[in-house]
Amino acid sequence: MKVAVIGGGSTYTPELIEGLVRRPELDVDRIVLHDVDRSRLDVVGGLASRMVQAAGWTGECTTTTDLDAAVDGSGAVLLQLRVGGQAARYRDETIPLKFDSIGQETTGAGGFMKALRTVPVVLDVAERVRRQAADGTWVIDFTNPVGIVTRALLEGGHNAIGLCNVAIGFERRLAAMLDVAIEDVAIEQVGLNHLSWIRSVRVHDTERLPEVLDRFGQELADEVDIPLDAIRTLGAIPSYYLHYFYCHHEALANMKSGPTRAEEVMAIEKDLLSMYEDPSLVSKPQLLEQRGGAYYSEAAARLLSSLVNDTGDVQVVDVLNEGTLAGLPDDAVVEVPSVIDRTGAHPIPQQPLPPEMLGLVQHVTTYEQLTVEAATTGDRTVALRALLAHPLIGEWSVAEPMLDALLDANRQDLPAFWS
Length: 419
Fold this sequence. Notes:
This protein is an alpha/beta fold. The chain has a domain at about 1-160: Rossmann fold (3-Layer(aba) Sandwich).
């Protein structure tokens, strides 16, 4: 099988390569890394080639800036794009702060702008996959904001599944806390991408969530940056991204006073690319762990393996709701445990969300629907409606001038809005 990685010049790529070549059951014999940045692609691709050679992998790992050549004949296409690079991320994180609004790459106005830039590009990739790739080719998206991008792909009728590393990270963390194998832990993580809660932690069919909260509650509270009392009130473990909702004023103040994540990542990436250029380097450097996205390559390889090998195991992925969570439309994209086989991801029926969770999820689902429409049409009025629908914005005096500032700063990456 040929696997195409779109956004192959990412500093994440060495970790993804490691995940793919360590799974012989995938039967991958060719990996093609695609990127629009030739110089960066050469550096990352050079390390990738050395890694697969050192691992004794007998397949072929190549690079290209030709998108059609990358997807042609592929059995799987993995998306890890960042349209506009870290410079665009920096704008996403800083411009909203001028309007006393959260600036974050997947949440709030920052995530909104990333979606506007990303959705049209991803849909173009998917159309080429439909024309040129092998029948039944899966498009696996871990490009943020995953929920919105996956929704756009599914609305376009593409063979797509969304994937995030939050669930696998929690699985590993909880397995370590309970001193059991990760394979023995089953979590019920439900909601939307980056807006989810773990309502159950089962080990060999025994519920362990109350024990986890009793023994490790403060540790988890520190990790997700949400007060322990709030977690106990919810009776569930919230994802870190709910920090921006449950601790909004604190999060906003911290963003205004400290360096942006974009600045931190730019510094890390500069060092990583310098390391990648070293011809003696044949494995991913430890510094890559600070880049973020831990275990996402493992999650991607596991999902692809289950699709190819028809395993029928359960993984947390982003799929159409289709009645899985009551109170949400069928075409919402939810993040829930799903059975994975060669025909795709099949969400497991879930108990209804309690009101305090359902209300927030409904609110954000509406925002996501409007954001996909804005991204695909370039309609400024729909974009304003999306910002008004977002629970972290929702104020006309903020939404209108902030949208103007964001659109103007992203002109080169928003042709639909500036045609």
